[in-house]
Amino acid sequence: MNQAIAHAALVVSSALFASVWQGIAIVGIVWLVLRFLPQLGAATRYAVWLGALLALIIIPVFTVSIGVMDATFPSATAPSITNTLISRPVGVTRGVSPVDATPSHLTPIVSIDSQDDARPAASVRSTVAISPIAALAAALIWLLVAFGRGIFLALDFWKLALIRRTARLWTDAHEYPVFLSEAIDVPLAAGFAQPRIFVPASLADRLDDDAMHAILIHEVAHLRRNDVWTNALARLAQIVLAANPIAWFVMRRLAIEREIACDDWVVARTGAGDAFARTLAALAWGPRARVPIAAASVLGSRHAIVVRIERLLDARPRRLRLSPAALGGALMVFALLAIVLQAVSPVLAYTPPQLTQTVTAAATSAACAVPNRGIVMTNFLPKERWTIKTPSINVELKNNAALAIKKVGAANVATVDITVNTAGKATKVVASPNLRYASLIAILPRLYRSSGYLPALVNCVPVESTVRLSVPMTPPEPSTYSAIVPVYAAGWSDANGSCKIQSVGHRRNRIGFQGKLPYTDELPWYSGTMLQEPEGSEFVTVARVHVDADGSAARVVLSRSSGKPAFDQASLSAARRAMYPLSQQTCPTMPTDYVWTTTYENVRLIARLGKLVPAKP
Fold first, then answer.
1. d(CA 210, CA 203)
2. What is residue 511's predicted lDDT score, i.e. its pLDDT?
3. Which residue in 120, 209, 360, 548 has a CA-CA distance of 20 to 30 Å to 515?
């Protein structure tokens, strides 16, 4: 199965699973609360049920989204294993390169926390196993049912548009124009931009004036309460919740409370609840076609009409206005439910593939040198930045987050989650937010995505795995980098063939630094005053050097000043005392001119490494 499809299927099935079991909790609590608060008006109960319907979408989506962002969401293509490491990128010689042999005191400590160690104990969730086929089937069923509900709703809107075109104006004596239609059997209210009331033409002849007046008040109440808008919102939510049976129960409660709220308007305006109850009974038991679900109608199901008639005959006071206290309490309950349900919600995870055991365990272990291991980092930074002399790292990542915290403090440690697939490619790299180091955090995914890996192994079988790296944000440290490039005169290749002197580049990182290369002492340093330069400072000095036949500098000219006289002089002095070529190479004819470029910078190691992997435009 395609990885993207498998992951999407697991996300959708997880949301469906959370929606069902969380929906039971949400709806159950709402039902109990309303059951013990019978004094609430129908308008308030309707608003609470509408909030519950939206919570059936928002809370499960919130739960799944938090799982994805926290890297607790299981992998979609292979068993997810946790492994740990500490890796130290090895300093190497790379010729002319912005970063060279990194001294040990600047080596970044990179540690990977196991999934269980990296998250607080409260966020560790139980898992429910599901096969990829079952997840895909659940996602497809939801997609088909939701699509069907969407088509059903679109057809209803089309029918309403047809009713609007064929209806004729009857009266505009009420708050909204009233139209007669031959295409409907029950009164209804519809229209977003131009709200209208539609009455069956036959009904105007059958009912007396008082009954028709009560029906029109009911429909006016729908429009005054904005039921056209809230009903449309509920129907759209029902499409998203098409595969959730809990949503059907909520929709029934919404329909009943909406109609009771409008019935309360009729009683409040006319005082004749018993008369309107008789009108509803007469309409309910007569022949009628299906009412478009996109419109608010005076009639619903026969069960709902029985409930409404009982309410109309009840002498309890009618509360037409929403209760701010009840709505505020409902919002607090929904917020609390979101936090609690997200914390305790189990996570769907793919069942690990069953490996066919055709050989004994001993034979399986003998099939490869290390049958079970975590992710291995083969090289840090892109391979094109390495030379043939660069050794591979080949370090299995081990957990040592405590060392990173001890080195720089917990506030100065960033975390990076890296997912490596079975082919050894980093398919997902996510760095945790850290406002203190926002610009540096953005560099980390580029660095680790460009590095090389070997996949984790389970019984010699490559598996996809996600690991969490702890990266210390080491303090900024000044350094100089020198690049000495020979200049070849015209016709050089004709006289010397392919023989060319290698360019030399090397970095010095602190006072008293002792390099391993013979020309280290010849490289320039910077004056003590430059130690106070702010973080991010960078200065460049360029000198042109003409050498004698014995390799000593005959003339050194400053061709570009850094703006720091002491640094310029240090660079010129280094160029004068050097013996050329610095690479210890020889050719039949040696170059007589060199360009010596020295760069001073005071940056953090992560920022320096980021220059090797620039952001894509």
1. 13
2. 53
3. 548
